[in-house]
Design goal:
InterPro entries: AB_hydrolase_fold, PAE/NOTUM
Pfam family, one: PAE
Number of helices: 11
Order of helices and strands: EEEEEHHEEEHEHHEHHHEHHEHE
Protein name: Pectinacetylesterase family protein
Biased composition (Low complexity): 21-61
CATH architecture: 3-Layer(aba) Sandwich
Region (Disordered): 1-70
CATH class: Alpha Beta
CATH topology: Rossmann fold
Distance between the termini: 21 Å
Strand order of the largest sheet: 3-4-6-5-9-10-11-12-13
Number of strands: 13
Structural class: alpha/beta
């Protein structure tokens, strides 16, 4: 099942709203398929090739690389980092000359935790089962995924340095486990799968820490699996990258309290992905024991001056299916939405007491089953009764002089019917 749709919209928007133009003028991605040597990162500004670029730097003992190009996507293989099929993992970086701000976006793409989901046999599966292509950022859908990562769209992050964290491990960028899944029907061969998301994030973070010292603003975001990954990994980004200020927007990947309907999902991924080994890396006193939902308040306590947020549609019919469909019998669309609404109530109760946390919860959008608020454009993300859309919310999130405000649209009975 597709996790986001490549649909664009035209037309005007309110202040702070990004509108995608008819013609995409952004620069195509560049890359390399060179195998990195130990401690060395390959960078190329040519179309993908099998040769090693001359622009390489030892990121273990050396300083930042001199960008071989600005305002272009560059492919950075990370030594020791792998995808679910054990192929080479890589990130994509877009430098802007003189920029002191950094946006990190984690890619969406479902999740998997058993033979059917990780082998691609199930309706609900995970992205890039065959690894990450060097030309991923040539793909129109990926290149145009979010206004926040585009230089040809006017927006608050247009002139920031940008890092795109691809997703190929089926574990919302969080796992730490090599596991063998057996075909329950005993027909297909065993599937060895590397849930290596956490280690990939750490490798990417170490590269960014070396490359972007003295960052002013660090903005971590992503939608769906990337949204959940942005929240779960926020501490690891924030504690390692030298940034004066931190911001988070988890788009459509909420980590609900385990005391609600998401509890069975949390227990399943805890074992399949070995989540406990990751959670033990949190600072003393911030261990997540039996309730994943406290990750939200833990990072709020750890970083009281940072500005943290979660956004999603209340009628999301994608992440909500992952949350409940394989864990409860006879799931109908309305029953899924009922569970989602009750879990949302639990989450907002966590957020409301914290001045450094906010949520933005519009009701419904026709695009992509109301999944991922920040993709393609911010059209139809408005909460009309409060005169705001997602673009406005992001502008307020990044404005340190404004208090964070939460928004939850009332039920719109004429929508999603």
């Amino acid at each position: 099942m597709a996790l986001f749709a490549g649909c664009g919209d035209d037309g005007g928007g309110s202040s702070g709203t990004a509108v995608i133009p008819d013609t995409d003028t952004s620069t195509g991605a560049t890359g390399t398929t060179a195998e990195p040597t130990s401690g060395t990162t390959g960078v190329s500004t040519d179309a993908p090739t099998s040769t090693t670029s001359d622009d390489t730097t030892d990121t273990t003992s050396g300083g930042p690389i001199e960008p071989p190009a600005y305002d272009q996507w560059l492919t950075i293989p990370l030594p020791g980092a792998v995808c679910g099929n054990n192929s080479q993992y890589k990130i994509f970086v877009n430098f802007h000359e003189g920029a002191k701000d950094l946006i990190v976006m984690l890619e969406p793409g479902g999740a998997c935790w058993d033979f059917d989901t990780c082998s691609g046999k199930a309706d609900l599966g995970a992205a890039h089962p065959d690894g990450i292509p060097d030309d991923l950022l040539y793909d129109p859908l990926t290149k145009n995924l979010s206004p926040l990562m585009r230089r040809d769209v006017e927006g608050l992050t247009k002139d920031w340095n940008m890092v795109f964290i691809p997703y190929c491990t089926g574990d919302v960028h969080t796992g730490n486990n090599v596991i063998t899944y057996k075909d329950p029907e005993g027909v297909e061969p065993d599937l060895e799968f590397h849930h290596n998301g956490h280690n990939n994030v750490i490798a990417a973070t170490e590269w960014m820490a070396n490359q972007f010292p003295g960052t002013d603003r660090l903005f971590v975001t992503g939608c769906s699996a990337g949204g959940a990954g942005s929240l779960i990994n926020y501490h690891f980004f924030r504690s390692r990258i030298d940034a004066q200020r931190g911001y988070l927007m988890d788009d459509s990947g909420p980590i609900f309290p385990s005391t609600g309907w998401s509890g069975p999902l949390h227990e399943k991924i805890r074992s399949s992905w070995d989540i406990d080994s990751v959670l033990t890396e949190l600072p003393p006193g911030y261990e997540v024991e039996d309730d994943f939902g406290v990750l939200n308040t833990h990072i709020a306590d750890l970083y009281p001056e940072d500005r943290l947020s979660t956004v999603f549609f209340q009628r999301d019919y994608n992440y909500s299916r992952y949350s409940y469909e394989r864990f409860y019998p006879d799931m109908t669309k309305e029953k899924i939405h009922e569970y989602w609404a009750e879990d949302t109530d639990l989450m907002t109760a966590l957020y409301d007491p914290y001045p450094n946390m906010a949520y933005y919860l519009p009701y419904w959008r026709g695009l992509n089953d109301s999944h991922c608020v920040s993709i393609i454009s911010y059209l139809d993300t408005e909460i009309e009764e409060q005169g705001i859309d997602l673009g406005d919310f992001i502008a307020d999130l990044l404005d340190d002089d404004k208090p964070l405000t939460s928004y939850r649209e009332s039920v719109q009975p004429d929508e999603d019917n």
